[in-house]
Amino acid sequence: MLSALLTTTMSYMKVVAEHFASNDNVKVFIGGAPITQQYSDEIGADGYSEDAHGAVVLVESKLGLAKSA
Q1: What is the pLDDT of residues 10-36, one digit of tens each?
Q2: 15, 16, 44, 48: which could form a disulfide with 40 (CB 3.0–4.6 Å)?
Q3: Rounded to 5°, angle at Cα 66 from 5 and 30
Q4: How far is 2 from 9, CA to CA, in rounded Å?
Q5: What architecture does CATH give domain 2-62?
Q6: Consecutive H or E run containing 4
Q7: pLDDT at position 65, please?
Q8: Is 61 exposed, middle or buried (0-12, 13-18, 19+ CB in 10 A)?
Q9: Assign residue 21 a region: left if phi > 0, alpha if psi is -120 to 50, beta otherwise?
Q10: Sequence ranges of the domains in the chain
Q11: How far is Cα 16 from Cα 28, in angstroms, rounded to an integer?
């Protein structure tokens, strides 16, 4: 999970996503104030969340850890 608070750090998210793109064992999830779903799609991240709670739900879902109701 990567989080950016400043737009100046966003470019490094792309570097990290590209680095792990060929590794099926690593998932890259991003979020933070300047981040959007569109940016997540553009850099090839495995997921995006706009807040911490959403990130937990996203990771649980993507990794098959979602709790049954």
Answers
A1: 999 999 999 999 999 999 999 999 999
A2: 48
A3: 20
A4: 10
A5: 3-Layer(aba) Sandwich (3.40)
A6: strand 2-4
A7: 87
A8: exposed
A9: alpha
A10: 2-62
A11: 8
